[in-house]
Amino acid sequence: MAAAAGGWRAGRARRRRRGRGEQEEEEDEEGGPATEAVLRRLREARDDLLSSGFWAASAGAVRAPLSGPAEPPARCVCYGLGRFGRCPAARYQLAFLLLLLDELRVPPARCALFDPAFSEREAAALRALGLCLLAENEEGKHGVEGSATLFYMVHCGKALYNNLLWSNWSPAALSKLVIIGNSFRGIEERLLSRILERDYSYIAKVLKGVEEVALPSHPRYLDTFNDTSVHWFPLDKLQELSPEVWDFVEEPMYQDCEDLEIIRKGEGPAAKS
User: Helix/strand/coil (H, E, C) string of the chain?
Assistant: First the structure.
C-alpha cells in the first residue's frame, strides 16, 4: 500500500474499554474507529492476505483476463464494500482491492468507490489511501466510455450486475469490462430460468459470452470471498452471440422482482446481500 507511511494518520483518538471478552476498540470523538486505527487494521488485513497465501493463490484468477488480447484495466470502480471500519470481511475485501490495484498498476486516484453505508471516518480513510468517492448512487449504471475498467463488486446484489451490463450493452463496451463479484454461473444455478430471464435479463443473455474463473477457497476467508469469481467478456465470444441479443436495450426496472438486493438512489443504507 503506497500510503502506508506518511499519509496514514488521523486526529486525536481515545480508548474505550469494552466489557469482558470483547475487543478493546479505538474511537474518535464522533464515535466509531478513528481513521488511523482503521488504516492500521487495514494494513493488518493486507498482511494476513499475504502471509496466508490467499493472495498468491488468487493471482492466477486475477491475471486470467490479461492472458488474451484485451487491454488491461486503466481504472476501477468499487460498489457495495460495506462498513470496513467495523466489519472484518469488508476490511479484507478492501485490502484485497488495494493489492489488486497494485498488481494491475491502476493508480489509487483512478479507483472510485461508493457505498451509502460508509461513515465519515471510513470515507476519510479511503481518501487517505488516495482513493476517490463517487458523489451519488449510480445503482451500478456506469458506462466504461471506451476505457478498460475493473468493477470490484464482491457480494453485491444481482440487480447491480444486471444494471452494469445494461449500461455497457454492446460487444465493444462489454469487452472492456472485468467484473470481480458473485459468480454468474452460481446465479444461473440458483435462480429459476424464468426468474433470471424476467428480472435479470442482461445477466441471462450474456452467459454464453462471459469467461469466469473462481477465486480459490481458503478456510480463513470462507465468508469473505465465497462464490466470488473474476469475469471478463472476450470480444470474439460476444460477436458470436445472436444479433437479436443486442437489439433489446430497455432499462431494467424490476417491477416484478420480489427480492431486490440493491439500494435505490435516494434510499438509506442497508446490509449487503
Answer: CCCCCCCCCCCCCEEECCCCCCCCEEECCCCCCCHHHHHHHHHHHHHHHHHCCHHHHHHHHHHHHHHCCCCCCCEEEEECCCCCCCCHHHHHHHHHHHHHHHHHCCCHHHEEEECCCCCHHHHHHHHHCCCEECCCCCCCCCCCCCCCEEEEECCCCHHHHHHHHHHCCCHHHHCCEEEEEECHHHHHHHCCHHHHHHHCHHHHHHHHHCEEEECCCCHHHCCCCCCEEEEECCHHHHHCCCHHHHCCCCCCCCCCCCCCCCCCCCCCCCCCC
The 10s digit of each residue's pLDDT in 158-176 is 999 999 999 999 999 999 9
Beta strands 228-232; 25-27: pairing state: unpaired
- Using 70 as the pLDDT threshold, list the residues of the chain that sit under it: 1-33, 266, 268-273
**pLDDT tens readout for residues 194-232:** 999 999 999 999 999 999 999 999 999 999 999 999 999
| Model pTM score | 0.86
What's the pLDDT at 73? 96
